[in-house]
Input
Amino acid sequence: MIEIKPLATRTVDARGSFCPGPLMELIRAIREGQVGDVITVLSSDKGSKIDIPKWVEKAGHRLIAVESRDGFDEIVIEKVR
Amino acid sequence: MKRILILGGGVGGTLTANLLARKLKGRIDRGEVEITLVDAAGAHVYQPGFMYIAMGGERESRLSRPERSLLDARIHLVVGTATRVDEGAGAVILADGTALPYDELILSTGSRILPEKIDHFEAEAQHFYTAAGALRLRHALDAFTGGRVVVGIASMPYKCPPAPLEVAFLIEAELRERGLREASEIHFCSPIGRAFTIESVSDMATPILEEKGIELHTFFNVEAIDPERKVILSLEGEELPYDLLVLVPPHKGQQFLIDSGLAPAPGGWLPTDRHTLRVGGRPNVFALGDATDLPLSKAGSTAHFEAPIVVEGVLAHLDGREPAGKHAAYAGNVMCFFEVGDGKGTLLRFDYDHPPKPPKPNAFWHLGKIVFNKTYFHTVPRGRV
Output
């Protein structure tokens, strides 16, 4: 079965960020976005692929994908509420 | 005549102006270049001192100097409020209608706090992001006789990331000294999955929270205050009761930057190149300090390290060359002190590629912060350090 990924409505390029961190950038995008927005976070912080899914679960949004790229991770989230 | 226009008389604007005046001394004296700095109040305020109004006996009068007294005599100071950047005309328009033309524009317009964005913030919560707010927190602490203290962060980004943790540590130490610790609970709400954004700093701070009996609540982004039930509610769906609520208010960039098409709504942070500090690819518009959208601490230290990069960028553009030398590109350098209470502190020093390795908290770094605070007006804005 082929999974069709929704097109990102916004990309947060947080590569190279340690402080305030990619999660902070994502939370900003979530607060500024609309329900249904698909946000792609690019992060070279190794903690992001752990922290962001944890936050997404707690905050009740939808994790669409976590993929490793060349030197960074791409995490795709849908704002659900 | 080339006109360099700087908006904002905080750390970034003042230091950039003074460094430029030093580099361009001859050209200014020959009438080839003019530097103008616009500041809404005409006063330079040392904002990190606000926390010490609440927690350390600091006075507001000691935290401010006339902007003119800090600027090189070659710099024109205009006291006024910028309301629009007219890029087509190459001018900044002030509230009184004055148009200030520019060839090079430096935006060091800072951030602003918006407590009113959270209902009941003003009536229910304390903060330390203005002198008046910090004094009000001091009075609330004086009147506090025990109960639940909640220290939290309304939204991100905000100024001086370590400050809320520092305040939690300092309140804990004070309540202990006043014999109120047994009668109190202290809760610290972090918007992310740990005590601090940077993992190494979090690893340093978390055992201190545990040792001091401060309860950590992670992934708690403040959404609302319920004054009837005296609880705060999070974006993630949790709630916490409080007797004394200390909250970092929401922060945003300047509205006129959004209105001028330079910064996107609703945040108002300027899209800034992380190395050149140019805004949105414009060759002659630069940003530094809190005003940028860079994923870094909104702190005077950031502006302090960015100023020489902006100076080199402006000089290079004036001369029609590429930025060169050690200030050609910003590496994300930041350095800040971090109080942990009981007369101890540590130091956070990092850049884009190197996270901080904070030394074990000790009296030296606490004293370092105090000395820095006391000597600030003689050093940083004048470009002496």
About this structure: Chain B has a mean pLDDT of 95.
